[in-house]
Design brief:
alpha+beta, 66 residues, binds zinc ion, Erythroid Transcription Factor GATA-1, Chain A, single chain, rod-shaped
């Protein structure tokens, strides 16, 4: 007895069974799409955690002396 549900990517009716290697997706295409979106989110991390050292400005000032 298979459970039919909507693919989270394309909303197509999909069979949630162990015979479906791409579950919970309807196929490889949607599985790849999900993985791609996940990877994109990982690379698109907000740079709010990146802070410059307080003395970075001083270093640049010294380099400009030449
Ligand atoms: Zn799909």
């Amino acid at each position: 007895m298979a459970t039919v549900y909507a693919c989270p990517i394309c909303q197509k009716a999909t069979c949630l069974a162990t015979t479906n290697p791409f579950r919970p997706f309807c196929g490889q295409r949607c599985q790849n799409r999900d993985l791609g979106a996940w990877a994109a989110e990982q690379y698109n991390v907000p740079d709010t955690e990146i802070t410059l050292p307080l003395d970075a400005g001083n270093d640049y000032t010294e380099l400009d002396k030449e």
